[in-house]
Amino acid sequence: MRIILPFLFEELKQQVLNQAGIKAITPGDCKFLSVHISDRTHKQISDTTLKRIYGFTFSKFLPSLYTLNILAQYCQCSGWEEFCQQHKTAANQNTVPQPAPENTSVANQALKISQKTLQALTNRSAVPFNLTVKREFVKDQFELFMHTDQVATLLTAPAGYGKTISLCHWVEEKLSEITKGSNDILLFLSSKVLSAHPQAGNLDGWLKALMGINTPESGLSALLDDQQFQDRKFFLVIDGFDQEKFKPGDFELLTDLLFDVIALYRVYPNFKVVLTMRSASWISIRNRLLIENSLKQWFLGFMQDSSLETNMLPFSSEEIRDLCYRINPLQAHSKIIDPEIISLFSYPLFFQYYYQKNTARFSLTHLDYFGIYEVVASYFNDKIYNTRLSTEKVLVLRLLIKYGKAMDGRFVTDKLVVYEQLKELWEAYNELISIGFLKEVNRTNEGAYYKHIEFTHDRLLAYCLAKKLAQDNQNVYNAELVNSLIRVIDKTYWLPVLEWNIFNAIKIQQFDFFKYLTGVPLYAADKIYVLKFLINLIQHRYLPVKSTELIEYRFCNEHQTLFKYFFGVEFISPEYEEVLHQLLILNLEDTSKVWVYTSLACIGIIQLNSVGVEQSITALRQLPEQVFQSFQINPLHCIETLYTYLKYGTIKKEALIQITRFCFNPPADDEFARTFCLDQVLYLLAVSALSISNNKNKVLRFIKVLDKKLAATDVAHESLRFFLDVTKADALLTLGQVEDAIVIHAELIKNFNQHKHTYTPYMKVCLDLVTARVMALQGQEDEAELMVSKVSQVSAKQKFYYIEAYIIGAYLSMPFHDTSSESYKSIYYRFVKLIRTGGLNMKSFMPAADSTVLNAIN
Length: 858
Known about the structure:
mainly alpha; Rossmann fold; 6 domains; five-stranded parallel β-sheet; four-stranded antiparallel β-sheet; 9 strands; elongated; NACHT domain-containing protein; P-loop_NTPase
């Protein structure tokens, strides 16, 4: 094996710069230096090789002997061997006249090497190092580590998480302290200059060789034993301690050396080791530590569990904003960044890539929702399609998707299953690992060996899944593709893959794909994201709503099924309100406008927003009268009934008369099924209008009619069934039929526990409120009180103010309160504020203790 001592290699690099008259090298200087070396030596070293040597480009291996010889010849030596001998001799001669104490020579040499390593690594930073941010959690980790008796700590994560930059910030601070007078010694090395062979036959010699110390004095052990050294620390810091950085077999030898060093010096509390490595390398080392019972010597940072593979955190929103201001201080950056943008750029590799593509005019302020997908697609094209081994990389990704499966919230591929096929694509696979596109995770336990291959980011996984679906379908976005999505893709990934398919279909103008979207049976909690996604496409002109150049795309008129697909009480939330307002910018027909304004009115009632409700009522009244004739129950009458009761305490009769007529003369089964998609909103609105009469038997009778129709028709009614059961349970509790109510409630809880991730916040609040009533009637007063408190907090956060007022009104209606207590007054003032701010009638809420929870629905 060729041995290159780091201090000699760094000295050679500096001598080359001195010969060329370069004080501080930049990437652009490498071309000039290549020409200059060729003119003097008549031998060629490419500028690419020089960029690797000076740290501007990643290099897995040390430079060849050929390259070292040319550089040495450029420095007036016959070759690398003579250069090494001259500088070893010079180093020995310099110590003869006035030998310095060993601790001084060690400190000086370590400082010199560390400064050069720091410069080389910071030069490679894609975002200029002076613009990068210091990670507070890394600083906290190292600070805590210094106060433990553990010997080693590490930063571990897949490629692209910013380990090296975070380490460089900490090293920079420590070196600054040392140059200002600190007695600590820090040796900072990049893994590519490590040699696997100890010098002088012992570990002390190996460390001294790494620092370029050639004196015969005693080694590091004596230095650490020195009483003058007791208040100082010696840091051995290695960046990129990863298996793929070394030739086969070298990583194991270096790991042995590292373990021996830690074992030898662990008795010295002032000796510390700091490493960065990828997750796969850490897993390999961790397994050895577990076998040797030595893991306790390592400080793992803020891992909640030592079995985890990473302790690097994603960027926070504050760190992303800080980066934006540093990169472009003259730009007026938004203080509030879209959560989708934060989600994307919390992965440092994506932030770095976006910066490289937008260096001149960097800003996240104008990056729209759809632009996020452009960033990921562009990243994929640049890193996969437009690179060497592009075909092989695509084959690797298709292979991993073919044999992958969802497991514990991850998409994993068993490496043993694909190993034989991967061997033919090994170079492409390793490159995907090195650029941070893929990662290996070892989940071996006592029962079996599991080595999994995973995508480092969910967006990359979703994009690859979507591209494979499309390619297998000849890039045609139609019903067959939707069927493949449902059949082939795990349900966990339906939503992100569907959004990518929409994105890609739009880019190639296959707008007919929209009529097939309703074939995907998404959960209620997911539909709102798809609708928001579609509206953002329209807003940013990715859908040609008013374009004269493209065929006009009428989102709602030509695709009524799609329009109905996204309507339901379960969606009620501030985000849904925003989406409904955005829908109004489209070219809607009058019937569609009725549903949009009706839903906005429902949200207005939930939010106790009387102005919003009045605006919706006004808009509905301005629509032609004949529009409402097709409705089995007039939604405007239902809204006016609810609103006048809450505003004035009076009950309008029109809606109640229509609901009674519906009960005695319901629509035929085929008509019920045909209009059900949107009419389920109307049915729940009718239930709410009935509930204000305080006649629970009428509510139950109406639900019974709906139950019969649902049983007689084949329609998907999960959300409607949920709200009807919640209402029925609440009504039965009020009527004293507790046992029947508990049976219904138990079934509701069972379904929730099985499918809780499909429930929207509004559905959860409604269920929790009935649960609180059941608990109270079963003697679980403390649990009921906690549940009510939870509902109140969620309602305040989600602007479900009607439910919050309902809870407080029920509390205030109870007898035996100490009305003079501060707690009672605080609750009462909150109640008054809620009602008065909405401009509503307080007396309409005080009897609410006996009202159904679904007053709050609409």
